[in-house]
Design a protein that fits this description.
It is built from 12 helices and 9 strands. By secondary structure, the chain is of the alpha/beta class. It has 2 domains: 188 residues, 3-Layer(aba) Sandwich (Rossmann fold), CATH 3.40.50.150; 83 residues, no CATH class. The chain is globular and about 65 Å long. The structure holds S-adenosylmethionine. The site of S-adenosylmethionine has 19 residues, from loops.
């Protein structure tokens, strides 16, 4: 069974770096409306400033493109060289001035009080629960006194929308088969198998739930669209990502954690995908 530790939350990315662009869709990748909102907030954070220093937690290409267009000096920090390389190949325009730091966000060589903005996407689900407060404190310290932390959260909903694998399959039998619907199905399996004691959205647990269904009802579906969605989940997500866990919190708890080190300036929920209630964006201002 997968566990909550830094290897299982962070290192697994390197195995899928080259597949990220083919299999990641909203809500696990930022949507068009969210891209626009990152741009709005980053332009605003840049007004009236001489030095414009940005740190990206991770290597998300959409965020780096915006930072370049807004003339920030960009540093990116990611634990996996494979992800840095794969994400760099997806940039709209290469930025020869970007500084790469290969390090763990929790244990990094960066200077305190240096950055005007720290930007990330779905950071905390990659961090063991016991280390989250430490990471938020580190981000606070990396920022200048008027610095802003811009991030997109990834929560677990307060109430599970489906009670069984059967209900999930019924829901997805009405969807078009594509990368997005497959990703949504695996997310629903995470939510179904989520246990608030361990806080884990685990591909291993999702796989077990599907295996249990297979034993009872088999692998074949009359609905061809459902078959295709199921097969992407079973053959990609339950294989390539099987050792990965995401650490999910409830919205109320995570907002309390933010408020220990930041004031919430603004919250944004996109309208171009169905999961924005559990993936809102935050503009957070450093508390001294
Ligand atoms: C920011 S997350 C979220 C994925 C996001 N939706 C995206 O667009 O890439 C994924 C990235 O964080 C990196 N990462 C995860 N945990 C890390 C850690 N503790 N320190 C540094 N990088 C980490 C992974 O290598 C990966 O490149």
């Amino acid at each position: 069974m997968s566990e909550e530790n830094i290897d299982n939350t962070s290192i697994i990315w390197k195995q899928i770096a080259d597949m990220w662009n083919n299999y990641f869709a909203p809500p696990s990748r930022i949507s068009n409306e969210e891209i626009k909102n990152y741009r709005n907030w980053l332009e605003k954070a840049n007004e009236n400033k001489e030095s414009k220093k940005a740190l990206v937690l991770g290597a998300t290409p959409e965020i780096r493109d915006i930072l370049k267009e807004c003339n920030y000096e960009v540093t990116i920090i990611d634990i996996n060289t494979e992800m840095i390389l794969a994400m760099t190949s997806l940039l709209k325009t290469k930025n020869p001035d970007e500084i790469f730091v290969k390090a763990n966000w929790l244990d990094n060589p960066l200077a305190d009080n240096y950055f005007d903005v720290v930007v990330g996407d779905a950071i905390l689900p990659n961090i063991p629960l016991k280390d989250r407060t430490r990471l938020l404190l580190k981000i606070n310290r990396l920022l200048k006194s008027d610095g802003i932390f811009i991030t997109r959260a990834f929560y677990i909903p307060d109430k599970k929308p489906f009670r069984s694998v059967e209900e999930i399959l019924e829901h997805f039998s009405k969807k078009e088969p594509n990368i997005q619907s497959a990703l949504e199905m695996v997310l629903e399996l995470h939510i179904l198998t989520y246990d608030s004691d361990d806080h884990l959205g685990s591909f291993a647990k999702s796989k077990e739930a599907l295996e249990d269904y297979h034993k009872r009802k088999g692998y074949e579906f009359e609905n061809k669209n459902l078959q295709k969605i199921h097969d992407i989940v079973w053959n990609f997500w339950c294989v390539k990502f099987v050792d990965k866990v995401f650490v999910y919190e409830y919205r109320e708890n995570e907002e309390k954690e933010y408020k220990q080190y930041f004031e919430i300036n603004d919250i944004f929920e996109a309208k171009d995908h169905d999961y924005s209630k559990i993936t809102p964006m935050y503009s957070l201002e450093k508390i001294q």
